[in-house]
Amino acid sequence: MQLRPLVLPALIVMLFGCSSEQTQRPTAPVTFEELPQETTLMHELHGSLIGVPADSEVELALLEVNRRDQPDRLLSNVQLQGRGSDLPFILKFNAEEFPKEQKVELRGRVTRSGQLIMSLPAVDITSSATQSLGPLRLVPAP
User: Fold this and answer.
1) What digits encode the pLDDT tens for the residues 12-56?
2) For residue 132, which phi and psi values (nearest 5 degrees)?
3) Is position 114 within any domain?
4) Is residue 50 part of a domain?
5) Is the separation of the CB atoms in 87 and 46 below 8 Å?
6) Rounded to an integer, what distance in angstroms lies between the CA atom of residue 120 and that of residue 100?
7) Residue 95 burial (CB < 10 Å; 0-12/13-18/19+)?
8) In this structure, what is the dihedral angle of CA atoms 114, 115, 118, 120, given to the nearest 10 degrees?
9) pLDDT 10s digits, 66-123
10) For residue 63, is it within any domain?
11) Can you give the three-state secondary structure of 48-117, one letter per residue?
12) Which residue in 111, 123, 117 sits closest to 65, CA to CA?
């Protein structure tokens, strides 16, 4: 069955549907007050990871940590792919959920084929402000 004879009528129907009066009616201008307001205050941690092997998976997590250094709550995380060179990262988090009285750490792990091969020693994060952490060195997993 040839579809070529049906192309022109289908195109005309589509054009007719797009030219209805409803779509050509001018809309009221949007004022600044009508725009949706951003309710969450997003901040970020950024830097680079040194020594990430190619073909590896990296997970960075911003964690609320209890007195026994155990994770209590995940605040944010990001997953990246290693490429054999320094790996830049940006980890966005909601500043309004950042705990005031609790310890917060950035932790990371590097896996290849599901096996842990490297880790990021815990980095204390003391403020909910956007921060540049600079270059962070990974260490081999035990």
Assistant:
1) 655 555 555 444 444 445 444 444 555 567 899 999 999 999 999
2) -100, 120
3) yes
4) yes
5) no
6) 24
7) middle
8) 60
9) 999 899 999 999 999 999 889 999 999 999 999 988 999 999 999 999 999 999 999 9
10) yes
11) EEECCCCCCEEEEEEEEECCCCCEEEEEEEEEEECCCCCEEEEEEEEHHHCCCCCEEEEEEEEEECCEEE
12) 123
Cβ atoms < 10 Å from Cβ of 49: 22
Residue 126 lies in a domain: yes
Pairing relationship of beta strands 87-94 and 139-140 according to DSSP bridges: unpaired
Full residue range of the structural domain in which residue 60 is found:
42-130
Measure the CA–CA gap between 58 and 52, rounded to whole angstroms. Answer: 8
Residue type, 36: P
The total domain count for the chain is 1
Q: Which two structure tokens, joined as six digits, stand for 63? A: 């964690």
Q: Which CATH number does the domain housing residue 69 bear?
A: 2.60.40
* Strand order, beta sheet including 131-137: 87-94, 42-50, 131-137
Residues 6+ apart with CB under 8 A from 62: 45, 74, 75, 76, 77, 91, 93, 104, 105, 106, 125
Place of tokens 């192309």: 7
Instruction: Look up residue 111 and give its two tokens.
Output: 């896996």
